[in-house]
Amino acid sequence: MPKITYIESNGTEHVVEARNGMSVMEAAIENLIPGIEAECGGALACATCHVYVDQAWLEKTGEVTPVEQDMLDFAYEMKPESRLSCQILMRDDLDGLVVRIPERQA
Predict the structure, then answer these.
(1) Which CATH superfamily groups domain 3-100?
(2) Which residue among 23, 25, 50, 99 is least enclosed by CB atoms within 10 Å?
(3) How far apart (Å, rounded) are the C-alpha atoms in residues 43 and 63?
């Protein structure tokens, strides 16, 4: 199973395994990662699973869709590497993915 490293805003790291097809948000919730609230449960109706994708992984995680971009407009301190973790689905070639969690969610 591919691994994801979540880095909290205070620098604390959490490394978890995720099944292929599972979203980065689902893996965070399943593993009780602090800072990922996921209020809409992955329905792309909020921005409370906002993460910053490490620069090395931006291209592999894919393009932001227009709907995701609309939701990111509500995110706290949006950056070019901002993504909604519910929209990144894990697969073998994302093994080692690194995401940073903002100080707070919108």
Answers:
(1) Beta-grasp domain (3.10.20.30)
(2) 23
(3) 18
Nearest to 102 by CA among 81, 87, 65, 90: 81
Domain boundaries, the chain: 3-100
Burial class (CB in 10 A: 0-12, 13-18, 19+), 92: exposed
**Cβ atoms of residues 24 and 1 within 8 Å:** no
Can you spell out the DSSP letters for 18-79?
A: --TT-BHHHHHHHTT-TT---TTTTSSS-STTEEEE-GGGHHHH-PPPHHHHHHHTTSTT--
Cβ 52 vs Cβ 61: under 8 Å: no
pLDDT digit string (tens) for 16-75? Answer: 999 999 999 999 999 999 999 999 999 999 999 999 999 999 999 999 999 999 999 999
Query: pLDDT at position 106, please?
Result: 82
Cβ neighbour number for residue 26 with a 10 Å cutoff = 21
